[in-house]
Amino acid sequence: MSVPNPPRDASPPGQPPGQPKKAATAAWIGSALEYYDFFIYGSAAALIFPEVFFDDSDPATATLLSLATFGVAYAARPVGALFLGHYGDRVGRKKIMVFTLMLMGLSTFLIGCLPTRDQVGTLAPVLLVLCRVLQGISAAGEQASANSMTLEHAPSHRRGFFTSFTLSGTQGGQLLATLVFIPVAAMPEEQLLSWGWRVPFWMSVAVAVVGYVIRRKLDETPAFEQQTATEGVVKLPLVVLLREHWADVLRVVAGALVASVSTIFTVWALAYATSDSVGMSRTSMLWVAALANVVALAAIPLWATLSDRIGRRPVYLVGAAGSAVAMFAYLWAVSTGNFALTMLLGITAFGVVYSAANGVWPSFYGEMFPTRVRLSGVAIGTQIGFAVAGFAVTFAAQIAGPDGDDWTAVALFTAALCVPPVIAALSARETHRVPTELLGERTADGGVARSEKVTA
């Protein structure tokens, strides 16, 4: 899998040439490696963990509990966002990016070393949850710090494109996790459940080492350095954030609920498709996810580039409203058991339509806040919304009925979660033409700084 290569572009004033490209590349690779760790857990929670860590005498309950552990990380993310957002706005974006990657690598490796339920009883799922919490804390600071890093390094007229590399990296990590699990899932049952499932988790050691080498060489952003040199860092970013930017925090929380589309597609639909009621194979459904992510890798920067031309709001609205409709079609296709139809609509729903919102939100959310509280605002807002999205999988498993096959209820539930993002986008201001130094700043009359002047 090749790393996208951002084209040459003028660096913002005050930094050496090539920094936007370097920041975007570091964000892509780091996010890909970070979210490889995060997403292999989702595949394992749907396919492996119900039999390894929970009582498989009741498969439906075991699956429900396993999917609940997937959501635990999302519950931990708002707590991690409070701390990592605070320190990211005080000590810089780079240090948080390095810390989150190392924490994710360690916690994922430990999951691969855990004893099973047959070996230590109920202690096994307890240890699994603890490691999952550490994964959640790490993920809480990853995207917000990478988004802030790329946005503050990028030319003003191309912030959408450069910040989209964080989410392209996330999709790359999901693709890598899926490709790793395809041969693992094809292993004989006995080998798969005894040691095969552990291999993808052990590989996180290499992930952590590579990520550390890449990110430690990245320069801090000129916007943060200027903030530190002139006004100084804010002692309590959270206080300033909630006092002056609470409305935008709420918008980000509501907008982040669109991530439910991803978790339903990645985890619940996978478990549903491979259940007895549908009967599709693990390998075939993993290929659906893999090819949808390949398409998303191309679609995300294209949607982001469009947002640099016409604005964040219209592109984001296409993704949020379109996903509500597209997920109905995809889950219906899964219910038919038709692999070709499932592949086509899966690529359309997740690879194309959802990518419109997914590719634009890094710039859309980040541009709502000024430098001094940007990382806190994006981290806290997104992670609260993502916490709901994470547990959407658990809710979906409950509302799907005792047999887990009521896909229409799950589709309606997913569509309902797309409504708050649409409202948030409609109420937000357009920021794609506001110079970076004026983003989120208040005018003398209490309004928000606006400008049609674009600085390169």
From TrEMBL:
One family name in Pfam for this protein: Sugar_tr
Keywords for this protein: Cell membrane, Membrane, Transmembrane, Transmembrane helix, Transport
Membrane topology label: Multi-pass membrane protein
CDD domains found in the cross-reference section: MFS_ShiA_like (cd17369)
InterPro entries: MFS_dom, MFS_sugar_transport-like, MFS_trans_sf
Compositionally biased region (Pro residues): 1-19
Name of protein: MHS family MFS transporter
Record lineage: Bacteria, Bacillati, Actinomycetota, Actinomycetes, Kitasatosporales
